[in-house]
Write a structure and sequence with these properties.
Pfam families: Nitroreductase (PF00881). InterPro entries: Bacteriocin_Proc_Enz, Nitroreductase, Nitroreductase-like, SagB-type_dehydrogenase. GO terms for molecular function: oxidoreductase activity. This is Nitroreductase domain-containing protein. The chain is α+β, with helices and mostly antiparallel strands. It has a single domain, classed as NADH Oxidase (3-Layer(aba) Sandwich), CATH 3.40.109. Strands 1-4-3-2-5-7-6 form a seven-stranded antiparallel β-sheet, sandwiched between helices. It has helices at about 5-10, 30-35, 55-60, 100-105, 120-125, 215, 220-240, 255-260; strands at about 85, 145-155, 165-170, 175-180, 200-210, 245-250, 270-279.
Length: about 280
C-alpha cells in the first residue's frame, strides 16, 4: 500500500489517527471543536486489564534467535555501523547545579549565527546515549526502546546539509538516512515569533515504532512509548540547558511533510515529539 492507503487503512481501524481535516489558521470554531473534541474517540486503544494470562511473556519466545538470546536485549542489531559517523566524547561541563538546569530550561525562539559541529551533537545527545551494559539515562518498558531520534540538518560541520540523520545510542553515532524533501526548515516547522530560522542547526523528531513493543504490551505499548519520549526530550532539554544551546519544543510541525521526509506512515511509526535547536 502507498502512504495515503496506509493512513486511510489505519483510520478505518480506529487505531492511532492523525486526521488532518482543517488548518489551524482556517475554519470556524465549530470545525475546531469537531476536530479536536468530538473526534477524540478516533484514538481508541483496547487496553487489557492485566498481564496474568501470560500471553505477553510467551511472546518473547517467538522473538528469540537460535542461541536463545532474547529480542529485548538485541539492541545493537538495529544499528548500522557501516558509513556511520561516530561522535566524539561529550565535553565535561559541571558549571550548573541541577536546580539551575531546571530554571535555565526555557523555550527560546531567537537563534544566533553560531558554528555547530559533531561535538555539539555529542553534548546534546549525551543524556540519551547507551552507557555501560547498554543502560540508558531513561526508562523503557521491557527494555525494548521503541523510540528513535531523527534530525534534519542545517549548517552542521561534518554532516551533509539539509539531510535526515538517525542517532544510534549504542554506538554513539549518527547515520544518514536521506536528503530532506524540502530544503527549508519552515516547510516543516511553524513557531510563533520565530527569529532567524536560517540559524537553526537541527530539527529533531522522536519517532515511536509500535512493532518494537506492541508484541509484548499490546496497546499499552502506546502509553509506554509516549512516556519514554517524554523522558528522552526532557534529558535532551537538560543537556541543552547545561551547554547553553537554544531549544524550542514545538507541536506546530507539518505532520504530512515530516512523515514523508522521515519515510514513516504515521501509524505503525509515528512522531511523538519535535524540537528545534541552535546557538
Amino acid at each position: 500500500m502507498d502512504y495515503n492507503a496506509i493512513n486511510d487503512y489505519g483510520n478505518r481501524l480506529k487505531k492511532i489517527n492523525f486526521g488532518r481535516t482543517i488548518s489551524l489558521d482556517s475554519g470556524t470554531k465549530e470545525q475546531y471543536y469537531d476536530r479536536f473534541i468530538k473526534k477524540a474517540d478516533f484514538w481508541n486503544l483496547e487496553v487489557d486489564n492485566d498481564f496474568n494470562t501470560g500471553k505477553y511473556a510467551k511472546s518473547f519466545e517467538m522473538y528469540s534467535d537460535q542461541i536463545g538470546r532474547k529480542f529485548s536485549t538485541s539492541f545493537e542489531l538495529n544499528e548500522t555501523l557501516k558509513k556511520a559517523i561516530f561522535l566524539p566524547p561529550a565535553e565535561k561541563n559541571n558549571k550548573r547545579e541541577l536546580e539551575e538546569l531546571f530554571k535555565n530550561r526555557i523555550s527560546r525562539r531567537k537563534f544566533d549565527n553560531t558554528t555547530w559541529s559533531l561535538q555539539n551533537l555529542s553534548n546534546l545527545f549525551s543524556g540519551i546515549k547507551a552507557l555501560t551494559d547498554n543502560h540508558r539515562g531513561y526508562a523503557s518498558g521491557g527494555g525494548l526502546y521503541p523510540v528513535n531520534l531523527y534530525f534534519f540538518t542545517q549548517n552542521i560541520i561534518g554532516l551533509e546539509n539539509f539531510s535526515v540523520y538517525r542517532y544510534q545510542p549504542c554506538s554513539d553515532s549518527v547515520i544518514k538516512i536521506s536528503k530532506m524533501r524540502y530544503m527549508d526548515f519552515t516547510s516543516y516547522i511553524h513557531i510563533e515569533n520565530l527569529i532567524n530560522s536560517k540559524n537553526i542547526k537541527l530539527a529533531l523528531y522522536l519517532v515511536a515504532n509500535r512493532t518494537k513493543n506492541e508484541f509484548k504490551y499490546g496497546e499499552r505499548a502506546t502509553f509506554f512509548s509516549l512516556l519514554e519520549s517524554g523522558e528522552m526530550i526532557q534529558n535532551i532539554a537538560l543537556c541543552a540547558s547545561q551547554y547553553d544551546y537554544k531549544m524550542c519544543q514545538l507541536g506546530g510541525y507539518d505532520i504530512e511533510k515530516s512523515n514523508e521526509t522521515l519515510n514513516i506512515d504515521g501509524i505503525t511509526s509515528f512522531i511523538t515529539a519535535c524540537a528545534v535547536l541552535g546557538g
